[in-house]
Predict the 3D structure of the following.
Amino acid sequence: MISRRSILVACLLLIPVLTYAVAGGYALWTTGLFAWVWWMAPACWLLAWGLAWFWRLGQLTQPSQDLPVASHWTARDQQAALIVREYQQKVEQLPPDKLTDLQHYQTEVQSLAIGLARRYHPEANDPLTSLTIPEILAAVRLAVDDLEQWTLTSVPGSRLLTINHWRKLQSAPKWIRRFQNTAWAVSILLNPANIASYLASKLTVDPVTSALQTELLGALYLRFFQLIGFYLIEMNSGRLRGGSEAYRRAFPLNVRRKSGSPEGQPSFESAAAGALTIAMVGQVSSGKSSLVNAMTGSQQAAVDILPETLNVERYQMTVGVPAVVVTLLDTPGYAEIGATKDQLQQIQAALREANVVLFVLDAHSPAREADRRTLGDLENWYVSQPRFKLPPMLGVLTHIDLLRPTLEWSPPYDWREPSGPKAQNIHDAVAYTRELFGGSLAAVVPVCADADPQRAWGILDEVVPALTLILDEGQSTALLRAFEQQLDQDRLKTLLKQIRLCGSDLFRCWIDERMQSDQDQSPAGNR
């Protein structure tokens, strides 16, 4: 039953509209202008019907309603998002009574939770048992908080909407249809020509109104699973095991803010914008050390045809205002047969610390099998560590001055729209590398890291702009790594604190129980 408050509010909204409609209709009738404007209503209704027919409900499931892909998500998280997408696509087959059935929502959420848990824990007989109590509670709290905020800010009339109103959205209240029929009967009596408008209304307005009603319920359904699905993924990934407060501090930008604004910067100090760690990976003599020297502006790294970098070397420089500390990690160069097991372990250690990776390749060397094998080994290692995300990789083609014609070198070159043989060869080398490595490299840029400043080119023109484009993703990778490390470091401390608080609570309960027992056994308590 509709509350008196809702009826009063509806009347206050409708009375002015009805007054204007009656007064305007009377004025049109008495002035004779009605014969000129009577066609406007059926024409607009017919146009609305045609638009609704061509613009189907399927538009609801376009990318605007998709689950937002967080920049800190791993490949496994992105695959899990496809499961949520499948549940969202069911909206096209659901009738209005299902879209307002709370039991249906509960059943679908349970099914979605089980499906996602199986994705993350495929070996478990009951995947839900692999989740911890704090993770489940944190997911519930985060999802409920965001749903509450979204409902208050985005759903019209949400402060007056009751469960009974929600259920009645599947069908228009009877009193609205009775009012419409009465209004049409009166208008036809006053002017029989209005029967054409009445028929147009029945054929166009009613179907359009029903479609809009279904689309409104469908939009609410999609938004609900968007929020629930997001936090179910965060829960299964293990990022909620520290609780909702720790998650909010590390990832302040939640789903409701994602829908309306671009992603902000990570909040952990270790992933702050004031520090950047770059790992450099490549073959022996690919130009890594020369690239280090060119980027730091000094001859810090040894340059030779022999493998000088046997371990990960660390170089630091401070650039920009405000100051940004950039750390370069020069990893061991591998041979043409690929990286050894020890070299892979050292490269993996550098990548775990890095925000971004520079994959250094010799532009005039056709040997790429070792690079492909090493990159494949690194990607497979990250697949085996699904909680972590491979930092974004930027391909850097060095020694481009040695491309044909070798005697020509007068940078800069417009290699994107080449007009000469040198620029064309640089363009072809970049295109070939992109094709060879596919999506493993975020971008490929050419450089010449010569010790002679007059010959060096590409650091400021190519490398730095390309780094800025992938920096947000790199910082998100660092944020995810820092958050995981923080949770692991606090595990023992948190356990000891929990044991202390639990012992204190048990002792307090024991004291209270003994005092209550003594009071019950005392003479005063027996009276």
